């Protein structure tokens, strides 16, 4: 049964037949497996999807024109459309609660580097890693680096405006690099936003509504992004007696005005031990931060790393050093990159990952609250303290719980709910709102509480202007 009653119920076969009139046969998945698979997020299994939630069809348009035809059709028939990149949202944005059409952007894959214009244009359907590799081949850097780089779509990342591992105060967010977009509105109209110049528009620029628009206002079908020339790099690591000292060291870096690195990643001692062992690295003496600084020249990058080591060394630290052995750096970085699968293997279960952002001043207290997030939570307290890793330089922490494989789905769900409850509570306490994964779906109630009814109402009004029939990703508002 549809959760939201204001959409007509259709027979999936009728919808599939009508879609065949506007799309080629190979662009429509009718099979139950594809339909269910395209309605799940990382925390759901097919058991959590009841019949009324199964999409009528999954469509795979290969051009903006085809996207436009699908949207026109859906808008006329008042059918919800769920835009899907890779479905890796960790806040439920890619889990659907009633039938509709899933519009998978996976075939929108044009790509052209315009060096003499200083930008690159691409479709939203590429995996992030693919875009990174294609840019690197030409000597450019992709300024967004999510943990999901191998699976997430570049369009999903841009819709969430997440820079992920990268430190915002060094390199900014995707929004700072997007020059313009091609977007299909819920009505099916195609619009262009932004500019072809590296001189960005002053004043109102609709690009900014769609980058970080959480897929609420339109379907992004083309992206123009500024080219970022590759830079020189230098690396460092610091080990601490405990988690709170690591947080204190990061505060110190900000207070000392040391140059923020591109990456400053954190592993607590338990996670570091587990992931170092798998990389055959010596056992780490404590929790750690690893950092990657950039500069126009190697000297500049090394200078920045040395400044960080100097600032960190003013706090109680077991060791802080520049890493010159690239093999050591690659192993440490790989330990970080693959920490999540290692924790899942070690803990033998399903991961539950949340995201807490701190203010600079609150970082030590926020770390403590995160360590203690099981307190007062009946399900989480069965598991004890979370594993913690994250982008500490960017002030983001990822507490991780492993829900044992033999727990019932209901118990796992309770644990996940408690985890997000605590996430919201801590983010609210520090006046933050999370820095990754977007703002809606599971975070919607938090968003409303955090910013109040006026702001929440304005967001819904903006949505209504772009999407008067509320057909695009309507599930994220729960009222
Ligand atoms: C193991 C793992 C690690 C992760 N690491 C990170 C991390 O480090 N940082 C981080 O921020 N996130 C991370 N994530 C979460 C996730 O990868 C991001 O939220 C990512 O932005 C989602 O991309 P996607 O292609 O899977 O989008 P989906 O989950 O398919 O969609 C996300 C939202 O964007 C909308 N959307 C997608 N494409 C478009 C489009 N073309 N036009 C309009 N709307 C669109 C969707 O409708 C939906 O609302 C991780 C997830 C996993 C499973």
From TrEMBL:
Annotated signal sequence range: none
EC number(s) given by UniProt: 1.1.2.4
Annotated ranges, domain FAD-binding PCMH-type: 51-230
InterPro entries listed in its UniProt record: FAD-bd_oxidored_4_C (IPR004113), FAD-bd_PCMH (IPR016166), FAD-bd_PCMH-like_sf (IPR036318), FAD-bd_PCMH_sub2 (IPR016169), FAD-linked_Oxase-like_C (IPR016164), Oxid_FAD_bind_N (IPR006094), Vanillyl_alc_oxidase_C-sub2 (IPR016171)
EC top class named in words: oxidoreductase
Keywords noted in UniProt: FAD, Flavoprotein, Oxidoreductase, Transit peptide
Keyword Nuclease in annotation: no
GO molecular function, one term: D-lactate dehydrogenase (NAD+) activity
Cofactor: FAD
Gene Ontology biological process: lactate catabolic process
Domain of life: Bacteria
Family: Belongs to the FAD-binding oxidoreductase/transferase type 4 family.
Name of the featured protein: D-lactate dehydrogenase (cytochrome)
Organism of provenance: Oceanidesulfovibrio marinus
